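User: Before I run my own analysis I want an independent prediction to cross-check against. Here's the chain; please return only the structure tokens and, at the end, one sentence I can use as a sanity check.
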Amino acid sequence: MTATTEAFFKPEKVSKIAKAQQTDDSARAIIEAEAKARENKTQKLRELRMKQEGVATVEDEAPKKKPVRKAPAKTASSKK
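Assistant: Structure tokens:
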């Protein structure tokens, strides 16, 4: 077999779907790695804060949300 420029320098055509899938997979892997690193950092900082405050154990609990208060509805008589 002889080496020709066509064999080495002619790239295969990649379908748009395959290229989009490859890009999507790469992006999702990067996002997942960043999220994992952020969670690890948060856990370490939480442990250090608890240690500094004197609490030995760290429990994962969701932060409590404040209840949403609605403003009282305006009536037609109060618009005068």
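Sanity check: The mean pLDDT is 80.
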